[in-house]
# Entry
Amino acid sequence: METTGSVTDRAGMRQSIGRDGRPSHAVYRWFVLLLVWGAFLMSCVDRVAWSTIAAPVGNSLSLKVDMLGSFVTAFYIGYVIANVFGGLVTDVMGGRKMLALAMIPLGIATFGFSFTRNLHTGLAIQFVMGLAGGADYSAGVKLISSWFGRERGRALGIYATATSLSVVLTNATVPSMSAAHGWQSVFQVLGGVTLCWGIVCAALLRDGSAASENGSKITRAEISILLRNRNLICLALAGCGALWATVGFSAWSNALMTKAHGISPILAGSIIATFGLAGAIGKPLVGWLLDIFHGSAKVLSIVCMICFAGTMVMFGQCSTIPAFHVLAPVLGVVAFGTTPLFLTQVTWVSGEKYAGAAAGLTNAVQQCGSALAPIVVGGVFAIGHSFQMAFLTLAMGPLIGLIALLFLAGQTQQRR
# Structure
């Protein structure tokens, strides 16, 4: 979509002006959101897919129980590394190019995972998948920040539904598809779809105002300012605690219910699907509330983390299918609700110009929780075979994140 100029609207966002002189920003920005949301969704599905079939497929690869989460950890190690550098590069080259550079290799690597025959090969490919997909997050945040102003909380809330919906889609389809056609076919299909979506994004996406204005190298001084920003540090640590529990739960809940309570993988998948579905519904709602009550962002975040830790402990005390069905959606709302709360505040603190770098750097810290939780929880369960202890371990993340939130300086309100 070509533009010949720009104007600034009342929300402080620059609108694209078409050749006919009419603003095209209002419509096209939602198309941008659709494309980046779809890319993020596929990236999340690719990373979650293994967790839904780890228990039954792990035996075919001769994996011990404590190693079932190792593939998830390998993915997130690569993901963290890519986030550190991907966010910085995104602010220089723009979200469109970075998104394409993330999605196309991710599709190829996901397809290649279908040829895994042993632990070491699987770890290597998952690490490459993490490297390839790690930059899609900051690229999407950058694009949304440059196209959305006062509705940014809502837009980022919708964008963040990709993580929860990926849990719904994978748990509802991957176990059944794996049982019917083999797990290799699952990753071949996912790889093909991811590759195609990456090509579509490369062809149809356009960068917003921030990319056209920046286009310059970020200095060390500017990076240093971001790294020393108190609120960004607090939000990064809080997000790390939240993702420790969210990703650890997504990676292990299926296998733990199967091994500890004898629940079938398909039934366990249906329970966890409600966890993701509730999160998908809750994220836009939380983002909308944040747009309205942006002055209460800190309070909303603290309340959400308290509920998160408490519900995780309660889930660990459950032993019946009805109880799991009741608590899973509640846990989904509070777990995934932290994402728009923290992400929107990160873009407020950094400003539009450095949104990509701030998102990438904070996400790198946050994803450390994602990388460590699966392997730690697996070790805890392998030692004691205690369902309760595994979920108490997961609940420690939100509790630590809660402490970090208490040190937020003032209010992380949006820059007008």
